């Protein structure tokens, strides 16, 4: 076992922080001064190091590039008004990461590296966490195969890394969604539940086709009957019909178990709504729209928290919503943001102090 003491820290001599306005940074383009790197070789994790953010050198024969053993996570840290910093539910992402690793025949990353390494890295770069409403530090842990051998087989070597970038408010404009019936994101027995890099690469073509038709994202349907809701682009989906919030169940292994999804389920219950995790077909949604019981439709994810859907198109049926009148999803978003940013009590114990 690697103890926290074994993480070698080499600090950068200069900081890029002074050249940035933390109140106004584009997402995913500016990385903090340091990164964490660990190598898996000879059946064990070694060389765990926090060092200045810098390019990495890999072989042109790198196995991840050729055969796609590559997974990642997305997490956020927040600074509260009293200056203390917290990571939102990192253990949930840690567990999901190792589920992805198992499915991709990659080694598990121990907690001492994933959680303790993340905590230490953020401690080193803590001045990078914006202390402003709706701002946070985005945390990107990832792992890729690191053999330099051509040939389809699980790699013997892997690299695990964490990089960080400050992020501002995500102006979640209500989205137009196209219900996709031809292309699929995931199949039962496949890798939909894993945060595997290839899932994102393969979703780009169908998403671009929907964009050409004037839509922001696709609503993925199931691979067999093309009628059960799966995910809204890269977000989990919720439909509110009457006083019940319905979100697709995770049993088939085709849906990523979103940490925001789980948090939103808890908050909806706190608000007194009934929450059902079950298969929901697009026909049920259309029927509810037609009989006036469909109240709100939204996606959930770490990046945007909640994205309201203003138009949902299924075949020739166009369902339009006046999202300005919605009350439930804005309230869920407010409650979740207040917990994350320290304005409300952390009643579910979701915050992990750095
Ligand atoms: N589904 C997919 C495919 C995603 O990439 C994400 C973003 N990680 C989500 C759902 C939402 O997950 P989370 O709430 O954990 O960010």
Automatic annotation (TrEMBL):
Cofactor(s) needed for function: pyridoxal 5'-phosphate
Pfam family for this entry, one: Aminotran_4
Recorded GO MF terms: branched-chain-amino-acid transaminase activity
The keyword Signal belongs to this UniProt entry's keyword annotation: no
SUPFAM superfamilies found in the cross-reference section: D-aminoacid aminotransferase-like PLP-dependent enzymes
Catalysis: reaction(s): L-valine + 2-oxoglutarate = 3-methyl-2-oxobutanoate + L-glutamate; L-leucine + 2-oxoglutarate = 4-methyl-2-oxopentanoate + L-glutamate; L-isoleucine + 2-oxoglutarate = (S)-3-methyl-2-oxopentanoate + L-glutamate
Keyword tags: Amino-acid biosynthesis, Aminotransferase, Branched-chain amino acid biosynthesis, Pyridoxal phosphate, Transferase
EC number: 2.6.1.42
A GO BP annotation: L-leucine biosynthetic process
Pathway: Amino-acid biosynthesis; L-leucine biosynthesis; L-leucine from 3-methyl-2-oxobutanoate: step 4/4; Amino-acid biosynthesis; L-valine biosynthesis; L-valine from pyruvate: step 4/4; Amino-acid biosynthesis; L-isoleucine biosynthesis; L-isoleucine from 2-oxobutanoate: step 4/4
Modification sites for N6-(pyridoxal phosphate)lysine: 195
Role played: Acts on leucine, isoleucine and valine.
Family: Belongs to the class-IV pyridoxal-phosphate-dependent aminotransferase family.
Protein name per UniProt: branched-chain-amino-acid transaminase
Species, as recorded: Lacibacter sediminis
């Amino acid at each position: 076992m690697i103890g926290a003491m074994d993480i070698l820290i080499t600090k950068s001599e200069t900081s890029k922080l002074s050249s940035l306005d933390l109140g106004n940074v584009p997402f995913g383009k500016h990385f903090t001064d340091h990164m964490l790197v660990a190598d898996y070789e000879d059946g064990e994790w070694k060389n765990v190091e926090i060092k200045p953010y810098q390019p990495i050198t890999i072989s042109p024969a790198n196995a991840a590039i050729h055969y796609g053993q590559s997974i990642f996570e997305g997490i956020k840290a927040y600074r509260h008004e009293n200056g203390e910093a917290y990571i939102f539910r990192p253990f949930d992402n840690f567990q999901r990461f190792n589920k992805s690793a198992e499915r991709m025949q990659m080694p598990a990353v121990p907690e001492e590296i994933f959680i303790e390494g993340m905590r230490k890295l953020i401690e080193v770069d803590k001045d990078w966490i914006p202390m402003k409403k709706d701002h946070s530090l985005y945390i990107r842990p990832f792992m890729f195969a690191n053999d330099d051998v051509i040939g389809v087989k699980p790699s013997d070597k892997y690299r695990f890394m964490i990089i960080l970038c400050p992020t501002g408010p995500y102006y979640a404009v209500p989205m137009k969604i196209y219900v996709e019936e031809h292309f699929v994101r995931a199949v039962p027995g496949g890798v939909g539940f894993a945060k595997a890099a290839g899932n994102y690469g393969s979703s780009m073509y169908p998403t671009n086709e929907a964009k050409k038709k004037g839509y922001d994202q696709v609503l993925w349907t199931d691979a067999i009957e093309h009628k059960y809701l799966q995910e809204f682009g890269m977000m989990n989906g919720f439909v509110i019909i009457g006083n019940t919030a319905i979100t697709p169940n995770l049993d088939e292994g085709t849906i990523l178990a979103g940490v925001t999804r789980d948090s939103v389920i808890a908050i909806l219950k706190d608000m007194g709504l009934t929450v059902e995790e079950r298969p929901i077909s697009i026909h049920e949604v259309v029927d509810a729209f037609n009989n006036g019981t469909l109240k709100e439709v939204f996606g959930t994810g770490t990046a945007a928290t909640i994205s309201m859907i203003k138009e949902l198109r299924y075949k020739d049926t166009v369902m339009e919503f006046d999202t300005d009148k919605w009350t439930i999803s804005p309230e869920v978003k407010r409650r979740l943001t207040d917990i994350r940013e320290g304005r409300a009590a952390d009643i579910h114990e979701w915050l992990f102090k750095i």
